[in-house]
Amino acid sequence: MLPSPETASLLRAAELASRSAYAPYSRLHVGAAVRSASGAVYAGCNVENAAFPLGACAEANAIGAAVLAEGAGLRIAEVAISAREAEGRAVTIPPCGGCRQRIGEFGPHATVHFATEDGGVRTTTLNALLPESFQLQP
Length: 138
Ligand code: THU
Prior knowledge:
The chain is an alpha+beta fold. It has one domain (about 5-130): Cytidine Deaminase, domain 2 (3-Layer(aba) Sandwich), CATH 3.40.140. It is globular. A hairpin with a 4-residue loop joins strand 3 and strand 4. The chain has four helices and six strands; from the N terminus they run H-E-E-H-E-E-H-E-E-H. It starts with a helix and ends in a 9-residue tail after the last helix. Strands 1, 2, 3, 4, 5 and 6 form a six-stranded mixed β-sheet that branches. Tetrahydrodeoxyuridine (THU) binds near residues 23, 30, 57 and 59.
């Protein structure tokens, strides 16, 4: 099934963000875009570091931009992820475990789309990707 125009534009924002990735070590260029409940879209790319564990995922940076704009009330409705190798070949990137937990903090019922290497899109939910997730009651 073809993605809706809204989802297609979120995927395009993720793909555009992946072009800004700083990934000289893995050579995997990842972009993420989140749509908040307000309808606004925030994008991020992965930023690696010579001290490898300091690298940040695209989703984490997109969520950081969203929190900066909307604060603690941020509610994530939808997330899109798009990734390419440095040489340009598309790669399927389901969000890593840590980013599933990050998305869940603001979007426990978010829809998650990730572009696939064959040019398609896989659509799922945060609930399906991270069942019985850890929650800390404030
Ligand atoms: N990466 C992301 O940006 N998001 C994910 O969900 C998985 C992995 C990045 C981190 C690192 O810069 C590169 O992909 C290889 O792990």
